[in-house]
Design brief:
By secondary structure, the protein is of the alpha+beta class. The protein contains 2 helices and 7 strands. The chain has a single domain, classed as Thrombin, subunit H (Beta Barrel), CATH 2.40.10. The longest helix has 18 residues, at 102-119. Residues 1-5 have low confidence and may be disordered.
Length: 123
């Protein structure tokens, strides 16, 4: 079964600022790549291994910088090569301990739609 088939919620391409708190308590910057009510894919410089429990503060643009902290587990990581990014080092997939609050799931959809209007649909 592919990862696409395993997803329990619709995934949306969306770029929002985030902060990761690592298992060691360090706070690292990140940006979301895509998100759903049950997980997300982050771009970050943090080295995070599958199985790591992390906290993520997601910032919602255009809502007075409203944010939410969610807890989750790293399910996979991928080191980016120089052709993929000069700023971020890794793509990190995270499964949330519990689904996002309804307001944040709605904000993900709204921001994704707005970004698609501004920049076009990502493939």
């Amino acid at each position: 079964m592919s990862d696409e088939d395993k997803r329990a919620a619709d995934r949306h391409t969306v770029y929002m600022g985030a902060e990761i708190t690592t298992p060691e308590g360090k706070v690292r910057s990140a940006i979301t790549h895509d998100a759903s009510a049950t997980g997300l894919l982050l771009l970050t410089r943090a080295r995070l291994e599958p199985g790591a429990k992390i906290s993520i503060r997601v910032y919602v643009p255009g809502q007075d910088d409203k944010s939410e902290v969610v807890e989750g587990t790293v399910v996979r990581n991928h080191v980016l090569d120089a052709n993929e990014s000069s700023l971020w080092r890794e793509k990190v997939a995270v499964h949330f301990d519990k689904p996002l609050p309804e307001w944040l799931t709605g904000a993900v959809v709204q921001v994704s739609e707005k970004q698609e209007q501004l920049f076009g649909k990502k493939k």
